[in-house]
């Protein structure tokens, strides 16, 4: 049986992802700027990660020298996501925003797995996986109309 630790880590991260849009939306509402709120979010996150790196990791930055060009885009994706959900959550509602984001992530994840994109191993799309995505999309509609 695989370790439960990775699952617990992801469950905790999921709590944070659900709390992040309204948290950043509050900063955006207070400041009047979604971009400033995202910047503050990333600055605080970067400071925490820097402290953790200093305390526990210390992998030399030179280790990144061989990374493929697309591997440097994670920060762009993160900034775009955090900005988008901070903007959307107060307008669509948190449940709709998170459900749409998750359904999109799963759909793209299936595609990337299927083609082995971004360094992943190939894992073909199957009918049960497509049914799962369809059920998630139906969930988006049900939650939105709720």
UniProtKB/TrEMBL annotation:
Residues in the signal sequence: none
Keywords noted in UniProt: Membrane, Transmembrane, Transmembrane helix
Pfam families recorded: DMT_YdcZ
Domain of life: Bacteria
DNA repair keyword on record: no
Residues that span the membrane, as ranges: 34-56, 68-88, 94-112, 124-143
Claim: Transmembrane is one of the keywords in the record: yes
Protein name, as recorded: DMT family transporter
Organism: Sphingomonas cynarae
């Amino acid at each position: 049986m695989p370790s439960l630790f990775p699952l617990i880590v992801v469950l905790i991260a999921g709590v944070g992802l659900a709390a992040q849009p309204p948290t950043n939306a509050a900063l955006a509402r207070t400041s009047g700027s979604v971009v400033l709120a995202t910047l503050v979010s990333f600055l605080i996150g970067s400071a925490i990660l820097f402290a953790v790196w200093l305390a526990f990791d210390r992998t030399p930055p030179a280790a990144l020298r061989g990374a493929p060009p697309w591997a440097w885009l994670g920060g762009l994706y993160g900034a775009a996501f955090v900005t988008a959900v901070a903007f959307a959550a107060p307008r669509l509602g948190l449940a709709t925003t998170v459900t749409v984001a998750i359904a999109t992530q799963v759909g793209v994840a299936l595609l990337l797995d299927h083609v082995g994109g971004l360094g992943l191993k190939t894992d073909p799309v199957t009918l049960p996986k497509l049914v799962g995505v369809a059920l998630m999309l139906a969930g988006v509609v049900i939650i939105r109309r709720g």
